[in-house]
């Protein structure tokens, strides 16, 4: 198997580690932006998309900064190679129609990487909890953490997350939450959002996002932020007969009285492994559409960008 990687940051390194475990004979290539780019063992550098036909990769992994996804994909439109695209699919919708036409018309296999779809506790909610005969009245989602702690050896203000011009913002970084809501419940009937950049972090990217996603018989409320020092990542489901709390950081599900209903020892790295295993099986299958294809990625992005005005 041959893989071409575009973007060799920390996320790409996780995907590479997983792929080497699952497919030890994989041959890795990376499209680099400069001859001075850092060299990595067992990764062959190329410097032009014109070289892709010589390599003939089995798929292309796009994990460069979000703001570069559109231009990267546009540079690949002469090819018909499966795509593994790290979330979010794009940083805005400007190039979406052209790219969607290309992917659709050429029947290109593609997958938008959202590894929380493989988190055991969320899989349990989707497959077991939501089958409850009790009516669901409300869903509350919260994801807050402290951006300066994300990359301890870097000035957080220089990272893409903190800069709107680089495709940063909590509404894009933590789009996982919107993705798993879409995965569990489908597209909302209506979405209202407040996106702000007014916290003590003093960054120009969105550092607080609050969404209300309306469905026929319940509402999903989603809060995302960059400034919470005691990290919290939860999903709360309010049923007629009681409330269920999912702690994503502990991979645990509890009832309102504290009874543990489900717990997993699965690690975050395990979710990346499950995701890549799924993708490799998808590549070998006759199925054109993945569980999270480009069109779905655009649906989630549209929710994330709703009322994209800092107030």
Account of the 3D structure:
The structure is a single chain. By secondary structure, the protein is α/β, with parallel strands linked by helices. It folds into two domains: 2-114, Rossmann fold (3-Layer(aba) Sandwich), CATH 3.40.50; 116-267 and 294-304, Dihydrodipicolinate Reductase, domain 2 (2-Layer Sandwich), CATH 3.30.360. The protein contains nine helices and 14 strands. The chain has helices at residues 10-22, 52-55, 69-74, 96-105, 120-127, 170-173, 175-185, 268-284, 294-304; strands spanning 2-6, 27-31, 43-46, 59-62, 83-86, 110-113, 136-146, 190-196, 208-214, 219-225, 227-239, 242-247, 252-255, 260-263. The strands form two sheets. An eight-stranded mixed sheet has the order 8-9-10-7-11-12-13-14, covered by helices on one side. Strands 3-2-1-4-5-6 form a six-stranded parallel sheet. α1 packs across α8 and α7 crosses α9 (294-304). It is globular and about 60 Å long.
Q: How are the elements arranged and paired?
A:
Layout: E1 2-6, H1 10-22, E2 27-31, E3 43-46, H2 52-55, E4 59-62, H3 69-74, E5 83-86, H4 96-105, E6 110-113, H5 120-127, E7 136-146, H6 170-173, H7 175-185, E8 190-196, E9 208-214, E10 219-225, E11 227-239, E12 242-247, E13 252-255, E14 260-263, H8 268-284, H9 294-304
Parallel strand pairs: 1-2, 1-4, 2-3, 4-5, 5-6, 7-10
Antiparallel strand pairs: 7-11, 8-9, 9-10, 11-12, 12-13, 13-14
Helix pairs in contact: 1-8, 7-9
């Amino acid at each position: 198997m041959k893989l071409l990687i575009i973007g060799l940051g920390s996320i790409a390194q996780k995907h590479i580690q997983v792929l080497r475990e699952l497919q030890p004979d994989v041959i890795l290539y990376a499209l680099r932006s400069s001859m001075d780019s850092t060299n990595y063992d067992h990764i062959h550098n190329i410097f032009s998309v014109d070289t892709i036909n010589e390599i003939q990769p089995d798929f292309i992994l796009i994990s460069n900064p979000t703001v570069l996804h559109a231009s990267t994909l546009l540079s690949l439109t002469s090819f018909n190679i499966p795509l593994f695209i790290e979330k979010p699919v794009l940083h805005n919708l400007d190039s979406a129609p052209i790219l969607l036409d290309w992917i659709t018309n050429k029947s290109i296999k593609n997958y938008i990487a959202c590894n929380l779809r493989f988190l055991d506790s969320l899989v349990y909610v989707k497959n077991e909890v939501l089958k409850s005969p009790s009516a669901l009245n409300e869903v509350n989602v919260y994801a807050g953490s402290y951006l300066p702690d994300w990359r301890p050896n870097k000035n957080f203000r220089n990272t893409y997350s903190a800069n709107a011009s680089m495709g940063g913002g909590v509404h894009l970084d933590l789009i996982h939450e919107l993705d798993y809501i879409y995965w569990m419940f489908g597209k909302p009937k209506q979405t209202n959002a407040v996106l702000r950049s007014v916290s003590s972090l003093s960054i120009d990217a969105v550092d607080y996002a609050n969404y209300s996603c309306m469905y026929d018989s319940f509402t999903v409320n989603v809060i995302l932020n960059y400034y919470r020092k005691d990290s919290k990542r939860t999903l709360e489901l309010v049923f007629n007969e009681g409330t269920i709390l999912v702690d994503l950081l502990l991979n645990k599900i509890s009832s309102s009285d504290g009874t543990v209903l489900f717990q997993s020892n699965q690690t975050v790295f395990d979710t990346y492994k499950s995701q890549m295993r799924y993708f490799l099986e998808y590549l070998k299958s006759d199925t054109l559409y993945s569980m999270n294809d480009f069109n779905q990625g655009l649906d989630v992005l549209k929710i994330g960008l709703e009322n994209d005005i800092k107030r």
